[in-house]
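Late entry, evening session. Most of the bench is empty. Finally got around to the prediction I had been postponing all week. Sequence below, unchanged from the version circulated by S.P.
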Amino acid sequence: MFTKFVAGIFDVFRRSIQVRYVTITVALSVAALVAVGGFLSISIGNGLFQTRVDQILQESKLATSEVQKTFSATGNTDVVSLQTLVNEVIPNLEQNIANGSRKVALLRSPNQATNQFLQSPISGELEISDIPVTLRVKVAETSNRLVYRSITIISQGVSHPSIVVGSKVVIPVAGDYELYLVYDISDSQATLDFMQSTLALGGLAMILLLGIVAYYVTRRIVAPVERAAMAAELLAQGALDQRLPERGEDVVATLARSFNRMAQSLETQIGELSKLSKMQQRFVSDVSHELRTPLTTIKLATEMLESKTDELDEKAQRSLNTLVSQVARFESLLSDLLEISRYDAGAVVAEIEPNNLGDVAQMVATGLEPLAETLGCELIVKLPSKTADADFDRRRIERVLRNLISNAIEHGAGKPVEIQVGVSKSAVAVSIKDFGNGMSRSQMDRVFDRFWRGDPARKRTTGGTGLGLAISLEDTH
């Protein structure tokens, strides 16, 4: 099912130029929007992040400076007083911020020479493990400078993107401590998420609009071409009255005008040719019928002379023989012309009845044996082991085989002619093969034309009219 669905989509894509153009337009638009949207999203995100970092560093710098001043200005040297001071300073750092809140951790730096220890205060929702070890190492190695990292703090199952800023502070008697200020930047992330979702929705809407516009534009372009293709197809099927609407002065209008002129020219020329063909057919039919009566009279007179051959001298007998052969040729020509005229008039009705194709082929070959012997040609008839029974018009098939075999004999250059009858479960067939010089491609294209001969100058022995194969073609249709 899925394969058929995909095949159907590819078939529509292959057949419809409009679908291809709309798909290409939408695909290119998607690529462009993704590239531009991605660039804008990254640029805006980096800008928001950097702005927030600059603000945080400024606040952290002020807070660190105030803490260091507080510790440096104290005159207390006992641990209890210093611890009290630390416990007062750290909560103030959590609240003393212009935007939101921050978490604070004051951790003792490792490897201190003094033995005075102060408890390390840390905000309630902050864990020491939240502060990266690499950041602590960097802070321990750095003096009088702020160091920051981006981290994620998980609180109550919710991730909070944050920035932690670390710096070194010195507490009298207690030694070096590390002050870490943690800022929640979820508000900036929410702003960025909103901006990205807005860009995505805007991009989808833009793609939809581009698809609609592309469909409309391509439809306006493709519709005239489709109408022209349909009109051309109908024109090819014989509907010569097909025309295209002509509107405007653009290339589509030019196409319509050119098509209409072509269709009008074709209609006129085909009409003239059809009229001429009908006149020619009528002429052939009339002449054939008009010649029938005088030919019959001449034939009767010839037969009467043949009955008195003994009374004629040798010269008169030769003239009579010539007359008999020419009358027979004239009768054959007239018969062919009448047959063609009947086909042109649509007056031929097939008489279909059960017959044996093998018997028909054998009978025709036997009738042409004298002609084959005259030209030194051997007729080889190959019949199948079982009878080739089928329903067909015996008279028409006999005529087809007679025309084909006589042509093969005449053009076979005295070589054998093979007549082979074949039979299958659903059909019967006959093939006629000679071993003469054959025909060129141009001759094969015209072999069924009326009155056409491959070599008019060639001596003929059968008195052909050039209508035999044309009649055979009509007989087989």
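Two things to note before I forget:
The chain has a mean pLDDT of 80.
The longest helix spans residues 17-73.
Will write this up properly tomorrow.
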